[in-house]
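Throughout this chapter, every protein is written as a compact record of paired, labelled lines. The reader may check this reading against the record printed directly beneath this paragraph:
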Amino acid sequence: MTDAVIHYLPASHSATASGSWTELTAGGCPAHSSWSRNPQFELFPSVDEGTYTVTVRLTPDGSDAPAPAIGTWVMPPPDNDERRRQQLDRNTPTSRSRFARRWQHHHTVSLQRRADGKPHLIVAATFEPGYVGAFELTVASPDDTGLRLVPIDGGEEADDWELDDPPRPDATAASSTFKSGCLGVIRLDYDYPPAAGDIDSPLSYDYKVIYRVVPGLTFCMCMSGKLTPEVDEQLTIAVEWLTSRGVSGITGDCGFMMYLQQCVRLHERTTVPVFMSALAQLPAVCCGYAAHERIAIFTANSETLAPMGELISDECGVDVQTDRFIIVGCEDVPGFEAVAKGEKVDVEHVTPGMVAKARRVVLEHPDVRAILMECTELPPYSDALRQATGLPVFDAITCCNFFMSGVQDNPRFGLNEWQERFDGQQEQYEYGQNLSDAQKALLVNTCHKTTKW
């Protein structure tokens, strides 16, 4: 439930309510079925039309941990008149903000007073569910001296919501923030709990993503670049399966899959773009800067990237062994050793060390103009590096987004409403899914029977 104390400040045309995310109400972003559990507030405008700024303020906990990513939505009221936290259609917001890692987050929206007298609903959420903490929500307006802000209590019904069976949003809603197209991801025979931002987390995308494991394709085999005939056959089957599902592009969940780039790209049934590594976008990044300006390439381990120099030159036309590139190994960042161990990475714990490393690189090499995150488990830190260094940061997700943007409608101009929009509901994925029983028997990983997200 949300305990709230309301303070009205008519002189400044604002109202403030205190709220909190608890174990029950920390629902995360709309990609989670628990999103509607987030704290909700009723906003009653007193003028026919006005501009309103919604501000969420959190108190830093005093540690070095970064602020959680937070965002706000302004939603239309539900059809019923009950004053309790509502199940909401996440695809029909009046307005929404972007998520940002800040202790104070602002979102400005123009609103009209409804003829039926019903309020607008405001939802405050963190990107990941489970963040517990208090916050203040303020709505201010230069136009509305009589606005009212009222927190909504969850009610008993909220306690009984089924988290795994959310309401299905309208896939064709014009206000949808999700995009069309489907990304196919080839996975190693390796399982781990991915963080949001990781290429193996469906939460990293605004479009549909499907996964296919290649039985026997271990990390060590991928790093060597040499497949056994049996694994090569399974890779071919995986490409055929993804192609049959109508994917718009194919990528991989390991930077060393650059070794597989040519094999997948030349498959007889592959006509979609293939970008098996974040390095596939390196030529475009290089083109954006002068020859004397440098690019830092962050990798999980600098020593293991070195043998790929010739391959990168062949595939990308870029020689990363020249002085233009600074290879930065992250193997010594505290907490990041979990990647090598196949364990869950504590992103908040690792972030300060990753930021410190980036700042050192920029300090020692002031001619660095951009950062490219080569490892597929590095994107969760990209935003922190962008904020800390002021530099553009490219990673596996920006690479996927670039290629996927080529098949997606741009709603701002040209022909619109010619594609079916993704409804935001990613398929629940279980490791080894989409394999036959015979193929599952070939899996090397022993955890595939239990891991889901």
